[in-house]
Amino acid sequence: MEAIGRTRWVIPEGYIPAESMVNANEELLSHEAACILNTGDQDASVTITIFFTDREPAGPYRETVGARRTKHVRFNNLSDPEQMPLGIPYASVIESDVPIVVQHTRLDSRAAEIALLSTMAYPVE
Amino acid sequence: MEAIGRTRWVIPEGYIPAESMVNANEELLSHEAACILNTGDQDASVTITIFFTDREPAGPYRETVGARRTKHVRFNNLSDPEQMPLGIPYASVIESDVPIVVQHTRLDSRAAEIALLSTMAYPVE
Amino acid sequence: MEAIGRTRWVIPEGYIPAESMVNANEELLSHEAACILNTGDQDASVTITIFFTDREPAGPYRETVGARRTKHVRFNNLSDPEQMPLGIPYASVIESDVPIVVQHTRLDSRAAEIALLSTMAYPVE
Amino acid sequence: MEAIGRTRWVIPEGYIPAESMVNANEELLSHEAACILNTGDQDASVTITIFFTDREPAGPYRETVGARRTKHVRFNNLSDPEQMPLGIPYASVIESDVPIVVQHTRLDSRAAEIALLSTMAYPVE
What we know:
- The structure is a homotetramer.
- By secondary structure, chain A is mostly beta strands.
- Chain A has a single domain, classed as Hypothetical Protein Tm1070, Chain: A (Sandwich), CATH 2.60.290.
- Chain A has no helices and eight strands.
- In chain A, strands 1, 2, 3, 4, 5, 6, 7 and 8 form an eight-stranded antiparallel beta sheet that branches.
- In chain A, a hairpin with a 6-residue loop joins strand 6 and strand 7 (115-120).
- The radius of gyration of chain A is 15 Å and the shape is globular.
């Protein structure tokens, strides 16, 4: 299959709840993810830049998404060049050297139950 | 009505929770669906390709969506050429021989209550 | 403000849960809505066509959205030319004589708590 | 980074629940937000116009989003030229003098648990 999508995507809404339900396992931990699909035959070198409300942007964070592979990148786990903070608003721009498609998802387990949100990221022309 | 939409759609986020609430009926079972609408006067032959994080893609899975019909395809039920796995990330590309429109929805009933997410799939130009 | 948007929109995912939480008031009743905005200076004459999995489409259902007004149309309330059914999958096409913008939202209160989903409808070129 | 996005965005669905869970802190209060990202090197002057079902639009509400900053504007907090009402449907148009990207999110904590929805706003050509 050919490489599908765009090389730049934007997610204006970002927020990783600082708390989770009691005894949450890895899957049910409050988290936010950028789900990236690379349908093409070349590995994708992806960089993520994080924007904040009151300081200069952080990054670039670097990820590789293999050819014909998907990767669900959890923002919680981004730690190089600096650890992603919890409990504050942020936004992200995701850039790739080959076309990809990006979807944004949050699982919020602050309460006893879970809540979910998801939307396709904004594809830049 | 004429055939509306595109012939290729992408859903980067995929994950079928492996658990459901106690005594969930068919409707409240944790599931993920690609909701497909074919407004045109010709049946749509649809193929679904599934991408994973650490192996080559699976598929094609084949579905038919009748003329002037909608079909909510549950990923859980895809079994030919191989059964869809639960509890791991995946992504999908949906292709059709006539224009269709595709929306992605998940119902997660792992906790005692349900959570929902939905977004329009990404329409490939 | 000028008239913003498109004259045709598609929502492939449709499902009105047949049950609601005990003692749900009008607001917390399980429902599905097409939220329509008409920013222009002319009233919008809107028609909604409903597609099913196993029968011919229903409609057209007719709505008016005033100039510079928004209208959140609940699918539950569509009754002419025929009552919208609960508990089965459907899809919709929304057409207008002037540009509008359409967003899809569901509130599901089958369990003791509520779940929400929302996405922008698909704008036809 | 250059300025990314569009200068006009539309959110047809708007509704701020009038109630929240008992003892909700600021974060868990029922609210609705327009998450705005300004990736460019110039501050963005943003105006928000609110549309209703049965009266003329309100606004413009004015916000500034700094260069290389994100701002999650809570509709609940809009009070000048008039206080945003709770518990009624509304819609919004968001305009900027430089390109921005806008995502819509609601947190509903009327029940004992929370529910979330989110979608990218509609980018006007």
